Amino acid sequence: MRQYDKKEVGDAMAEVIAPGEYREHFHREYRFAPYYSAGREWLDYEPAYRYGYERFLNCCGRRFEEVEADLARDWSGHRASSRLHWSEAREAVRDGWHHIERSLPHALDRPPRRAPRSAP
Description:
Strand content: under 5%
Number of helices: 5
Order of helices and strands: HHHHH
Largest sheet: none
Shape: globular
Helix content: 55-70%
Number of strands: 0
Radius of gyration: 14 Å
């Protein structure tokens, strides 16, 4: 797969998903996510979604699975006031990452990632 630089990924992201839209999407949806834990709040999940957005750009659009170990290692420095440990934040970061991938398939010359199926 072709490697992209940060500017290429940033330009593609800016065309299809603005940070404010991304944040609002997850603010509306986080409580319905299968990884949501009762008793957790937006202040716990927001840093995980933000981390996914920022790191997607910094990782030049590489697949989540390719950079997951680095994301896990660096989570504690980005979690702000979130009470989520990496084992809890992982799926929110991944969900955010995949949300961006689904928005960018043509911009990054890759097949689209399908949205997860809802449970019946």
